[in-house]
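Field reference: sequence -> structure
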Amino acid sequence: MGAEEAFEKVFASLVTVQTVLFCIGISILVMVIRRIVEKLFPNAKNVKLWEEVLVPLGPYGTGALFAIFTKDLVTSPPMNSWALRLFYGLACGAASDLVYAKFKRWIGLMTTPVPPAPAPAPEEPPAPPPDNKP
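Structure field:
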């Protein structure tokens, strides 16, 4: 078995419907936690620690904690070690963060009005022909 075949086998065993659903669950859970915190503490949006540290790290932490404390994760192959579950949770958190960021950017592009094209500059009239009189 070559390296490519081994990689494909591992990739196929990790990227399953369960993994995709786990990533979607992480995104939804992070969104709900963020909404709750920002409703309970309206000034949280102005706090640098919240906006620059906790919000960006939310999917990673949520995925890692959820994977560590959920012993019955449906994965193939089964992950019996907490370290494997931690890595799996971090990877799923990273994937959900990446997909959420791309989706949010795409929605922003779809809802942003396109400015009208600038009008073409008027053409200058042609210069008169040179006078060839002696």
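Note: Helices lie at 3-14, 17-40, 48-69, 82-111.
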